[in-house]
């Protein structure tokens, strides 16, 4: 007897489904690799490894009683933070839509936007429309954004020209240098953040794919975490040739700030094996750093005497303008030297990773020297 076509189609689809499920169950994971490098000793992609979250029952704050208008909610003094220009509004809306959909519509933490010029009415109206949470629009004080008086204008222009000739991205843009300096050591001094402890940095055009059903800020507080990251990359050593030498000068003068090597991530900062040419060009620094485009952090660390003294030392050295010292390597070096590595937490699959970043992935080194955190 002939079998009807719809039944044959269903049977064929069932066979393919069974084959697919068997393949998923029994296939061996591929080695972690990017376009130009294979990491020896890494059996699987760290993104697919167990991150030990969620924590044991009772230690995560679920989305109960977090209504935006609830004055007695479990929310702590934390904010979502973004440095953004008016012309980046569409990109900011995209980021807000993703984070609100995956997380913040459940927890309603406030958004705090910073700009060196006033926000437009359109910017305020459209961003407010994306969230039930409070939105704050803050102007950066001129003294925090201006190029400091000790920077030589002629030397800065000449240095910017040299950075451009070396194809250092954004090296010729004064505003980029100003942004890196502000993100490194000035944002947490803004009056709007005076009573805020934790922040989640969100930039325009960022994607968030994973639903998160617990209060991330509460997790940081309850588990005594200082810093959370997702991506860990190699930097361009041509942009930071004197950052590590200046750091060594600082810690020689202030050995009391440096954590013992048994608990710090200094070995991660000084690794010479994975990218020896980076270490050589950066004068002893591996260039591994947390990509601060995504970071969740406790501002008590940035406000500590160790970090404040370190930032002021770097600021006076001039590398934010004569080179292209970014806030990412500055934050990373400080955390690697001055903080217990167990308080630095890999957040796993919170956001997307672009294919072009794979070849610069430094996470294997972090897991090698520090662990999953």
Helices and strands in order:
Elements (H helix, E strand, L loop, with lengths): L4 H22 L51 E6 L5 H19 L3 E5 L5 H8 L6 E5 L2 H4 L7 H13 L8 H12 L12 E4 L14 H7 L4 E3 L2 E3 L8 H11 L12 H5 L5 H6 L6 E3 L4 E4 H4 L2 H13 L1 H4 L4 H12 L5 E3 L16 H7 L4
Parallel strand pairs: 1-2, 1-4, 2-3, 5-9
Antiparallel strand pairs: 4-8, 5-8, 6-7
Helix pairs in contact: 6-14, 8-12
Report the span from N to C terminus: 62 Å
Number of DSSP helical runs: 15
What pattern of helices and strands is seen along the backbone? Answer: HEHEHEHHHEHEEHHHEEHHHHEH
Portion in beta strands? 5-15%
Number of beta strands: 9
Trace the largest sheet across and list its strands: 3-2-1-4-8-5-9
**What class would the helix/strand composition place it in?**
alpha/beta
Major beta-sheet overview: 7 strands, mixed
Poorly predicted parts: 28-43, 51-58
Residue share in helices?
A: 25-40%
**Roughly what is the average pLDDT, rounded to an integer?**
87
Shape: globular
Q: Which features characterize this protein?
A:
373 residues; 10% strand; 9 strands; single chain; 7-stranded mixed β-sheet; two-stranded antiparallel sheet; alpha/beta; 39% helix
Overall description:
It is a single chain. With 373 residues, the protein is an alpha/beta fold. It contains 15 helices and nine strands. The strands form two sheets. The chain has a seven-stranded mixed sheet. Strands 6-7 form a two-stranded antiparallel ribbon. Helix 6 (174-185) packs parallel to helix 14 (327-338). The longest helix has 22 residues, at 5-26. The chain is globular, with a radius of gyration of 23 Å.
């Amino acid at each position: 007897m002939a079998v009807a076509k719809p039944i044959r189609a269903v049977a064929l689809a069932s066979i393919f489904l069974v084959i697919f499920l068997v393949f998923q169950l029994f296939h061996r994971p591929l080695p972690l690799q990017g376009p130009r490098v294979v990491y020896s000793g890494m059996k699987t992609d760290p993104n697919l490894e167990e991150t030990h979250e969620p924590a044991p029952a009772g230690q995560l704050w679920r989305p109960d009683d977090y209504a935006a208008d609830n004055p007695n909610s479990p929310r702590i003094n934390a904010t979502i933070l973004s440095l953004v220009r008016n012309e980046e509004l569409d990109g900011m809306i995209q980021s807000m839509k993703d984070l609100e959909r995956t997380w913040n519509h459940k927890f309603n933490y406030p958004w705090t936007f910073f700009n060196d010029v006033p926000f437009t009415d359109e910017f305020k109206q459209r961003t407010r429309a994306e969230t039930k949470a409070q939105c704050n629009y803050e102007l950066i004080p001129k003294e925090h954004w201006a190029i400091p008086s000790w920077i030589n204008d002629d030397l800065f222009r000449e240095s910017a020209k040299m950075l451009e000739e070396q194809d250092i991205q954004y090296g010729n843009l004064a505003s980029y240098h100003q942004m890196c300096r502000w993100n490194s050591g000035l944002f947490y001094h803004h009056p709007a953040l005076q009573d805020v402890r934790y922040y989640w940095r969100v930039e325009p055009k960022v994607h968030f794919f994973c639903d998160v059903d617990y209060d991330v800020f509460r997790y940081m507080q309850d588990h005594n975490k200082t810093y959370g990251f997702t991506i860990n990359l190699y930097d361009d050593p041509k942009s930071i040739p004197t950052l590590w030498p200046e750091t060594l000068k600082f810690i020689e003068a202030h050995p009391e700030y440096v954590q013992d090597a048994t608990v710090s991530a200094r070995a991660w900062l000084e690794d010479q094996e994975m990218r020896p040419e980076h270490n050589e060009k950066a004068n002893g620094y591996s260039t591994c750093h947390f990509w601060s485009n995504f970071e969740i952090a406790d501002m008590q660390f940035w406000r500590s005497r160790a970090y404040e003294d370190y930032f002021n030392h770097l600021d006076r050295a001039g590398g934010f303008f004569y080179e292209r010292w970014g806030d990412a390597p500055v934050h990373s070096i400080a955390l690697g030297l001055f903080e217990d590595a167990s308080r630095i937490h890999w957040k796993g699959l919170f956001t997307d990773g672009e294919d072009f970043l794979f070849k610069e992935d430094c996470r294997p080194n972090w897991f090698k020297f520090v662990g999953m955190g």
